[in-house]
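Inputs:
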Amino acid sequence: MDNAARPEHVGTTGKSVIDKKGAFQRAQSSFRNWVTADGSSGYKAEAGRYHLYVSLACPWAHRTLILRKLKSLEDVISVNVVDWMLNFETGWEFNEKRDACTQDTENGFKFLKDVYKKADPDYDKRVTVPVLWDKQKKMIVNNESSEIIRMLNSEFNAFCKTQEGKQLDLYPEELRKEIDEINEWIYPNINNGVYRAGFATSQEAYDEAVNDLFKALDKVECILSKQRYLVGPTLTEADIRLFVTLVRFDQVYEQHFKCNKKRIMDYPNMWPYLRDIYQTDGIAQTVNMEHIKKHYMMSQRSINPYGIVSIGPDIDFTEPHGRAEKF
Ligand SMILES: N[C@@H](CCC(=O)N[C@@H](CS)C(=O)NCC(=O)O)C(=O)O
């Protein structure tokens, strides 16, 4: 398949596929080890030992940056940021000349695929961000964001810079069941749902994805009409996982992925909720709209052949949200 015809996120050697019905199926992550506070997993939580490779455009990587920030672990876990431009033949690349991008300070590589090759010379699957790298073992610990955020939430408490960071628990024991239940429908229908809509290559697959997406958004709207956050009065992991998709929605997914039945701005509860999370201390600094817009619209040429970055809409995430007073 040539580059123009192949939807992005379906690499030449990757395992994400477009199935017979034209539907996008995301590949499974490959490195699934865990960092633990006591080191029983072989990867002990330590200050300065671990490193994150991220893209500021990628919603999955964005979750890990938010956890690192909210847990005040910036001095404990270092970060490198790849170029927002993704060439689907060569994969993520380091290009420190671009604003807010860095070199690979750990391994000195030009391409992220070389980090994967260093961890596993036979690696032939998708090269994705985020990557949690162990500087001591010179090994990828984990490249699955849903697992990395759990580690950052609970295993590095001894090293959090602030008391708030140390005490913050976004996946508390008593809410785990509810958080898991919410993640279970938000992931396929919303987080991955926008990709399913955007990368569909048949009307049928698009219709199914976009209907699932807006049904799930209506369900979220209904929950948020009754309470401040997805599982009640406190911010949890479920909100962070939803936020990274909502914050990209009106600027990118609405037109780029044809998710245009409604904008988030059109939902009377979800729009203030999105601003509420955006205005939570530390979160705004993790949002880079330039990287987000340019990455999707300039890299994903199969759905935006001329790479033109669209203008709008004007959005003010800093407008007062009123949710604290309402609930
Ligand atoms: N399951 C992974 C998915 C990560 C993922 O799909 N990342 C995308 C960026 S949004 C990527 O790196 N794509 C590179 C490629 O497909 O070549 C996670 O949540 O960590």
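Residues 50-167 form a domain with the Glutaredoxin fold (CATH 3.40.30.10). Flag for discussion at group meeting.
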